[in-house]
Each structure stands twice: as C-alpha cells, then as structure tokens.
Design brief:
By secondary structure, the chain is mainly beta. It is 8% helix and 36% strand. It has two helices and ten strands. Strand 9 and strand 10 (125-130) form a beta hairpin.
Amino acid sequence: MTIPSVGGGYQIGDGNVNEIQMFALTPSSASATATLTAAQFTSGLIVGGNATTAASYTIPTVAAIEAVVGNAKVDSFFETIILNTGTGAGAVTVVTNTGWTTVGSLTVAVNSAVRFLSRKTGDGAWTLYRAA
C-alpha cells in the first residue's frame, strides 16, 4: 500500500478508513542500567543496550505512568518496544516497579527487539505483557 501524500492519515472516528494509520513516534534511548522515566516508557520505542555487559531497565512506578496517561480506563493499553543494540554479553533485563504484575520473560537478547504491552487492570494496577 502506498502511503498517501495528502490528507492527515487515518483518524479514529473520522471515517477515513482507506488511509493508512499513522502515529507519532519519538524514540527514547538508554544504554547502561537505568531507571526509565514515564516519558521514556510511554514513548513507544526505547533504543539501547550495552556493548560489553548486561543492563537492567527499571520501569516507572504505576503512579508515574498514571500521571502521564491519567485518562486511561481499565483494559486500555499502550505498547513499548525495547530494541537492544548491544553486543557480546549485553542482554537487557526489564525490572518491575510498584503496582506492576508481569507476564512472560523480561529479557531482551542482544541485537533483538521485544514488544511489551502495558495494560491497566485497576486503580493503581497495571500488567506488563511480553507480546513478542
């Protein structure tokens, strides 16, 4: 499908069903072990990794996430892709924080990407799923 050169792209509820869905994406970055901010984690893409050693990325608390996505309803979700550009022993491990439940492996192997879905399950409670 060719991306349209005119128009605003598909807009939910606008009726432009023949146009491609377009979303804004400004990747975040992290290299060594880090505590991610809510802005980084909700950006959609985190590019990082370490060339020589493993790294761990601690996700923000649920309170920090809810401050950014305050209108989220139960069962709404957002996705975060972590792209590990590290080499050698540079696997990235995602570390949970207050208010989170996790499902699936939280390790992102060297030179690979993992898609995570964050789903609101209740007030002050979210689940992080490894989707792919």
